[in-house]
Amino acid sequence: MIQAADCGIGIEGKEGKQASNSYKRSAALGQFVMHRGMIISAMQAVFSSIFYFASVPLYQGFLMVGYATIYTMFPVFSLVLDQDVKPEMALLYPELYKDLTKGRSLSFKTFLIWVLISVYQGGILMYGALVLFESEFVHVVAISFTALILTELLMVALTIRTWHWLMVVAEFFSLGSYLASLAFLSEYFDWSFITTWPFLWKVSAITLVSCLPLYIIKYLKRKFSPPSYSKLSS
What we know:
Layout: H1 14-50, H2 62-68, H3 73-77, H4 87-92, H5 108-132, H6 137-159, H7 165-181, H8 191-194, H9 197-224, H10 230-233
Helix pairs in contact: 1-5, 1-6, 5-6, 5-9, 6-9
Protein name: P-type ATPase C-terminal domain-containing protein
Subcellular location: Membrane
Domain P-type ATPase C-terminal: 21-226
């Protein structure tokens, strides 16, 4: 219905409005869940290629479970609360729905963009950790995994168009949960290393290189090719 309807036709009722809102949120959520899985797959591919394709997992045990659940789940699924304009604005300007007929929120192009983002970030996180790690391999895990969590949280913030207070809670809860769990994950993290300045600047540097270019691209895109709703949300 959304793809075929003209502006104001077949989308004016309550069901149509709810479907259009659900479409954009579902598109953002679905593609970000895909990104969350592909970025760690890219890191594993880089890691395996450097070590002659040895069948050794980069992250094991609770790290993989924690990454898929408490460390990233709440911020990612908080994207269902995102909205480009307020509901009353959408009702007042039905021409905004015209963009939905073009299918730009979920297409092969957007899928390819998220694939490229995942490969880029996964490569930066893994190569950066391997270049900057200290004398022990456990430091590679500590640097790359911490940078991965921070990157995911920043990418959620980059994707959000309108902040909801629950989104802020989800971001801080996930970050706090990760930091608190470091005290109990001595099997994967060397506490004497992760509390040092070298660890902090290396994680910060890798995360910055991973995310800053995407923030710059988003800023330039909004400046020179703003979406149709930007004037209403400003």
